[in-house]
Write a structure and sequence with these properties.
With about 425 residues, the protein is of the alpha+beta class. It has 12 helices and 17 strands. The longest helix has 22 residues. The radius of gyration is 23 Å and the shape is elongated. The N and C termini lie close together (about 5 Å).
């Protein structure tokens, strides 16, 4: 076996054309995509991907969560496959590249190996994970989570969308529920290419992000209770203003996250104030604090400080406060060997690169529990994602796919 030659490249033009063809399915209203999971558009995108994979000589596997596995055979029938991929589903107002680049970049590896007449010892399997976004059926990364044993399949099937439709029924309806047992596959390694979804690579002028860690996440729902009262006739010293209490707690959230700079972050994205009337002092505020860090001890410290300091704020204001942990997962450290393969690929190709911590969740974060895993990232314009204006350049896509190509092929082993 040998490492990939320095001049080995994917066909960047073909990759870009594939991205643009897929983007025609489930178009958004502002230039992006609305190809939500288990919709008719998702089914159409899956069918196109299957057609392309079969044209490239792959056999298609399908498990009972709808995960798709396109296999290119290796020369060693006993060697575990090297998996590569991401997801084809999008946000309701999603972009053309989030997830899709990783799936079609994987397909481009197979096509390029065919063009070059290269055989690998390990099989290569290109994967489309179902419902990574979690926008219809919460939580995100649902099917890869079942694959990795994080979620129960029956529980996943029972997830409902806003219209009360269940995941299991919708998967059956669009015709993409397979018979294969979820999680039965064993992997030699898994690689995922993704756009950064953040501004760091572009700001630093780097072509490649070598992802070493994924941030852990903690969601705590905070409920502050005061007393509804008339805004005009209630003296300031006699108010029990839950909205003001929330404002002071959120200032503390910002302070707590900044105390763990540069990698920790914190904010409240979901906020409800009651009764939400122009002339009523809020009697209740409910909000979810989102803390993230690549260090579990930091997350635990931020959680503890939130509870202690929010309690002190509310006690001083005559307010009641309650806390509920409503979500979260531990930080991820990706496999050192796979990360090294990504870094060596960028160096071999002469591409500028830097270590990166992913601030978002990805299927790779769950698969890392069951197989050696790493991620490759390329920049996106202004760090914008989950938005129809999401954009990358053809050169960025090609550079990221080439690093993926080299890392996957080196791990799969070229047979001379």
């Amino acid at each position: 076996m040998a490492a990939p030659a320095q001049n080995m490249r994917i066909d960047g033009g073909r990759l870009w054309n594939s991205l643009m063809e897929m983007a025609k399915i489930g178009p958004g209203i502002a230039g992006g995509n609305n190809r939500q999971t288990l919709t008719d558009a998702d089914g159409e995108g899956r069918a196109l991907f299957r057609t392309w994979c079969e044209a490239a000589g792959c056999t298609m596997g399908l498990d009972s969560m709808g995960n798709m596995f396109a296999r290119r055979e290796g020369t060693d029938p006993d060697a575990l496959p090297v998996y590569v991929g991401s997801h084809l589903d999008t946000q309701p107002t999603g972009g053309k590249f989030d997830g899709v680049l990783g799936v079609l970049g994987g397909l481009e590896i197979v096509r390029s190996l065919n063009d070059l007449g290269i055989r690998t010892r390990h099989p290569i399997v290109v994967t489309n994970w179902t419902n990574e976004e979690g926008t219809r059926f919460a939580p995100a990364m649902l099917a890869s989570g079942v694959f990795a044993g994080v979620h129960d399949q029956g529980w996943a099937y029972a997830r409902k969308d806003a219209e009360g439709k269940s995941f299991g029924d919708e998967l059956e309806r669009i015709g993409w529920r397979g018979d294969e047992e979820v999680g039965a596959r064993r992997m030699h390694a898994f690689f995922e290419l993704h756009i950064e979804q953040g501004p760091i690579l572009e700001a630093e002028g780097k072509q490649i992000g070598v992802v070493t860690h994924g941030q852990g996440l903690s969601w705590t729902q905070v409920t502050i209770t005061g007393k509804d009262a008339h805004t005009g006739s209630t003296p300031m010293p006699m108010r029990r203003d839950a909205g003001l209490g929330m404002a002071r707690v959120l200032e503390k959230v910002n302070e707590i996250a900044l105390s763990h700079a540069p990698h920790a972050v914190g904010a409240a994205g979901h906020i409800d104030v009651y009764p939400n009337s122009r002339n009523v002092i809020p009697g209740k505020a409910v909000f979810t604090v989102d803390f993230r860090s690549p260090d579990l001890k930091v997350i635990e410290d931020m959680e503890a400080r939130l509870r202690t300091e929010a309690q002190a704020i509310c006690d001083a204001m005559g307010l009641e406060v309650a806390f509920e942990k409503v979500g979260g997962f531990d930080p991820v450290e990706f496999d050192a060997g796979c990360v090294a393969a990504v870094r060596k690929a960028a160096e071999r190709l002469g591409l500028s690169h830097m270590n990166l911590i992913s601030g978002a969740g990805h299927d790779a974060c769950w698969i890392n529990r069951v197989a050696p895993t790493a991620m490759v990232m390329c920049p996106c314009v202004d760090g914008l994602s989950h938005n129809e204006a999401e954009e990358i350049s053809p050169d960025w896509a090609e550079a990221g796919a080439n690093v993926l190509f080299h890392a996957v092929v080196e791990t799969a082993g070229i047979v001379e």
